[in-house]
Design goal:
Elements (H helix, E strand, L loop, with lengths): L5 H20 L4 H10 L4 H25 L9 H20 L2 H21 L15 H20 L4 H13 L3 H26 L4 H25 L1 H24 L1
Helix pairs in contact: 1-2, 1-3, 1-9, 2-3, 3-8, 3-9, 4-6, 4-8, 5-10, 6-7, 6-8, 7-8
Keywords: Cell membrane, Membrane, Transmembrane, Transmembrane helix, Transport
Protein name: Probable membrane transporter protein
Main location: membrane
Amino acid sequence: METLEPGMWLVLGLVALLAGFIDAVAGGGGMLTVPALLSIGLPPHIALGTNKLAATFASSTAAWTYYKKKLFSPSFWRQSFIATLIGATGGTLVVDMLSTEWLEKILPLLILAAAIYTIWHPHPKGSNRSLPEKSASLTKKQWLQGISLGFYDGVAGPGTGAFWTVSNMALYRLEILMASGLAKAMNFTSNLTSLVTFAILGHINVILGLTMGVCLMIGAYIGAHSAIRFGARFIRPVFVTVVIILAIKLALQAWF
């Protein structure tokens, strides 16, 4: 990658700010940041690792905000934490074994598939502010969800927050704010796990990741507070609008 012009740093910062806001509101910020990093010439492995560094800032800020507002209970979701950590570690190790050429071809398709799914999959009608009862069935759901989504976040990442939100509403019948709070905490878990693994493997542009991370963190702070203040009526329109725009943009990049 050549030295970036000042204008490009500004563009990446603004993209990160918007992505942090979107990610805190409904998930899917990675559908902006990963293509942006790839577009400046970063190799796919470095783009994914740098995105994890930046995304960890945003997800930690959003998760902490939801926790302070009592929209997330860490002790209740302990099994989800463990499963997500294991899944994310496995996914990151798998992506490290993939060739750069293969990643360059498959990443746009994965991002596009995530965008299409989030548009056309019906939103579950979660309505509970209370946590589900603890049971063997609940534990199985937590492990299946954590392993699979943690693995996907380790392999690619874009859309993980949205997948967490939708599946939380479907599996546990949580209303969207509670579902978003859980999603942000689990997204932070997989981001941090993948970040440590990518760092060990040497796949991170630290300066770029930290710069975008600060912008993501600011966007996440604004987004999380906006979501909590305005609720589902605010979240759903923003989510659908952004994903439609991203789906069109990524389709043009991937096929034309």
